[in-house]
Design a protein that fits this description.
111 residues, mainly alpha, 67% helix
Length: 111
Amino acid sequence: MAASKFQALWNHPAGPKTIHFWAPTFKWFLNIANVADFAKPPEEISYTQQVALSCNGLIWARYSMVITPKNWNLFSVSSALACTCVYQISRKIRKDCFSDDGQATLPSLKA
């Protein structure tokens, strides 16, 4: 039974013998790096980087559900990437737009 499941995974069109398996698998390192950045102060988070990565995650998550066969590895890594990026963006917005006294403030446009 286990051998047949392993054989099915091994011979799957998005299985370990193809780039369709390995590219999303290595993309998990982006998620690991983003989770490691949760310890970073919000001042060091880049809006442009996080927005670009979240858009990348959303686009590839959608794509992975449209193609045949569905690539669940790509879907999971891309969805996780979008979620971690949205969390990072929310941390940055909370720091930049809300002061300690609870009053909303606009961030400065100067770098």
